[in-house]
Design a protein that fits this description.
homodimer, alpha/beta, 2 domains, seven-stranded mixed sheet, three-stranded antiparallel sheet, 14 helices
Chain lengths: 388, 388
Amino acid sequence: MIYLDHAATTPLDSDVLKAMQPYFNKLFANSGSIHSAGQEALAGIDKARQQVAHFLNCETNEVIFTSGATESNNLALTGIVDASDIKKPHIITSNIEHPAILEVVKNLKNRGVEVTILPVEHDGIVNTNVVQKEIKDNTILISIMYANNEIGTVQPIKEIGELIKKINEKRKNKIYFHTDATQAAGYLNCDTKSLKTDLLSLSGHKIYGPKGIGVLFVKKGTKIKPFQYGGHQEFNLRAGTLNTPGIVGIGEALSIVKKNRDVNNKRVQHLRDKLIEKTLKEIEGSHLNGSKTKRLPNNANISFDKIEGESIMLNLDFEGIEVSTGSACASGSLSPSYVLLALGLSHLQAHGSIRFSFGKENTIEDVNKTVEALKKIIKRLRLISPIK
Amino acid sequence: MIYLDHAATTPLDSDVLKAMQPYFNKLFANSGSIHSAGQEALAGIDKARQQVAHFLNCETNEVIFTSGATESNNLALTGIVDASDIKKPHIITSNIEHPAILEVVKNLKNRGVEVTILPVEHDGIVNTNVVQKEIKDNTILISIMYANNEIGTVQPIKEIGELIKKINEKRKNKIYFHTDATQAAGYLNCDTKSLKTDLLSLSGHKIYGPKGIGVLFVKKGTKIKPFQYGGHQEFNLRAGTLNTPGIVGIGEALSIVKKNRDVNNKRVQHLRDKLIEKTLKEIEGSHLNGSKTKRLPNNANISFDKIEGESIMLNLDFEGIEVSTGSACASGSLSPSYVLLALGLSHLQAHGSIRFSFGKENTIEDVNKTVEALKKIIKRLRLISPIK
């Protein structure tokens, strides 16, 4: 199998699994118990919290463990709205956010929140000036993803963070800034002080960590309400018995990402660039979607004229090459990617797109085999395509 | 270590871990992906969903995987309220529910929901007649736990379920019945058809399954809204990438519970009964809290006159015996257990209580050693106690 779907999920790193192992059935006690067995579990969680805090350049009490990025996003957006004393609060987001933002925003809109959904430029980037123009007196939250899950475009989070900071200095009701860093966490600097974010979401399973665990960074002093009620865990902000193995795993995974980031980014970028170069050169009617430069080093999203992405994907699968037509969350849906439509692609072009997302176990042979398979498949599919 | 805190959490069963293992880094793909790697992960989830459905005697599309019982309870209660078209809906619960119910109810009350919190009898049991008396025209939901986490008392869920079913036949707006079966799942029959529940919550880590995974049973036709928004997972009722290893683990754990239930219950009940018998006989001023007969086979909650539970617990811990003063979720809190106060215990008595909760790896030697340690510790503590 050649797995080129790392944006959907990653295998668990063997060192991460090794770190988790003792917490399954040796140091298994409830970290909320005050006996020594409980305290041993808590020590594992404390270490992981430090690893996460180190990754985010923040304090340990600004790290909230959740069940994943979807919960982190729900907590961030709903929690800020619920804690606000503005009568009709206003929030701003972009039209290429993940459903775990857009669907939460839709729900908040149904509850009476005012919503502005920003467009992106043709290269899939949010324009900071457009963000600034949409800010109103009742704006309480701006949520812009760090990197897109389908096209890998990287947003100017630091620039937007600095803009909001400057604006906040001159206004009474603070605007909070949230970023969904789920796709970015494996590749980009997530220093929350430098990015000037108040809230940041990330997930374990996109960074060779476990599934079912995530983090929400919540800056000290942020006015936020819990989303999930119950016990007093996570500084009263997230109820539920702590998932010790998951927490230990995400701490270890982030620690490994930080350590190897430069070397790993260079490696996957080389593979990714080779794939783009060979594909665009050797396959007629193929186009890269999204900015060439402002994108994650592991992402290539390519449209192939006059054929369906789903057919390409299934044919590649048959050859043991795993790619995706868009986000796994939307798979099975017949409508074209809203992200690609937002870039200005036609329905037809959007339907003919494939996401290749590389990971640390991929090799140059994987690239060569994939391009060879693609050439064969696309030739065959174009022969039988009803679109001329 | 003698671990007698299984109500707080359990170690992961080695067979469960074995079932989970392939899903960490071999069958690791996103179950939402349509390529074959994704479909292999989905097959593991499908099998687990069948195991859970078998355990609950329900259909597979009535099984919703969540991050734990706390989330299941939040989804059940908030989801039913949010989907109701009654103007000021009314919900009923008991005063000995877990905080994952009581805190959700408090939040709903703040949002304008009418709430009735039922008392329990002195033996810790909810009276079905009292439930019936409190039902109003605007009642939409009754949530009563199956077994209590501190005193192990078992509620007449089937009786209440049958009552509600009968009442529903004669009224227009349906009353939904939810039970938090987190503590019960390891020991009691959870046949949802026989219990006549519409919703049932349970958690992996209380039944030798993984932490960070839970289930909400939602009966077909139940009007409920999602709690966590995002992707279309779990029949559009719970967004977020599926935690394949966790799901496979909880399926396997429930399957093992069902298979070994009768034998295991007999074993732990024998140990538990020995502990109660020896303690009450050999330690003066010790009393069992909660019903003697209507309780989980593994739970003993005992008050010791004139001393603090916390001191007993810490002294037992020093001897390598792990017990609890109440729920792990409330640990660190100085207020006496609200569950014990609800039974009519004084603050002093409630403060002097210890929960012993047995598990499948405990032996009769554990019981003997624990009672011997208790005798020594309690004698010593009473000598220095300021309470006379």
